[in-house]
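seq/struct pair 1
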Amino acid sequence: QASTNSDSDSNRVLPRSGRSKVLQEAMPALHLADAEVAVLYSLRQGVFLQGESGTLQGPPLAELMSWLDYLGRVFPGGGHRPVAKLSDALHEAVASADDKLSVEAFEKLMDNRGLDRIPPEAGLKPNAFWRHCQGFTCGLWTLFHLLSQAAKSTSSESAGEELLLRVRGFVENFFGCGYCREHFLEAFDGCKLERCSLAKDDLDGAALWLWKMHNDVTLRVAKEDGREIPSPWPSAEDCEECWICQDCWKKGSRSDDDFKRAAILAYLRQEFSSPEWHEERHWLSGDFSANRAMPLAAVSALLLAAAALRCLRSGRGEDARGKDAKDS
């Protein structure tokens, strides 16, 4: 099947938002920080869920190596470099141990290993390091959405398929919530939300599928818990142009006729990507001249947005995007 044309979608004007300009511009930096925390925490807590007697081998080990290889290539900003170094170190450790990995060997690899601006402590006690999220599940969804945008910098002809397969592999092997894992794999393998109709190179389609799944999970969990069904994400306040019938999704519809594809894609790009990250990758790779300063806008934006969010949260409760109930 031919890939959906992404150029016309990605060049549209960004959707209007009810957020302040400062907060809106800072959101990618906040999401990047949360994604980095999620990576560190998952590596510290989830790697040996499928291990036996403290040893990882076979398919779970192969998936770990593929996951780190992928993050080392795709993760935005400066975070890809420490992950790539960890990936190289992991390959060496596994090769020297007959294609096995012990808990002790991996803990040694992770010692004092942070990720860009996030310190190693976040892998053990992450709560103090979340910026927009309030828990790991939110951070993990943020990581997936971030990768769906960062993967556009690759030249792979199967970038969309690779993204979704890596996400599936992570959930199957390294996500600790068995209930959540079962539901996600059932949806993925059962081609829910037309996943199996996506072309291998359809990154926009893959990004939309993750967005649909995120909403589907949030609404399902709220219903199962007997809570009030939240409005789908993004809210009309955050993206005035995204929805044709937001209430339809809230009531169980999953039709593509209920939302505006181009507006959702523009929203995801605005929320989870930044031109500065591409620039920073070149800087870290040595592609910039020695007298050019490293971009600092992302750091400033992160600090400003963190302060703004604290002010907002002091006056209202968390919305569904910041909660960490089950697999939402």
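seq/struct pair 2
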Amino acid sequence: MKILTAILCGLMLTGCTVSKVEPWDRQYLARPEMAWDADAASAAYQSHVYFSKEASNGGASAGAGGCGCN
């Protein structure tokens, strides 16, 4: 049973390969809609509002608040 489980896990892991992005497909990834922040001014404003409410700067990437209690 352990051998069968190991074989099945090995087969499932081979399906999780990273596919290469072809040069002709890169145009779709470079579209403005694919950006994390499509509007830079709006993103800067949202970031300013966030760290103003949290009373700290740089808290957007961490899971904690700005109180420094963790």
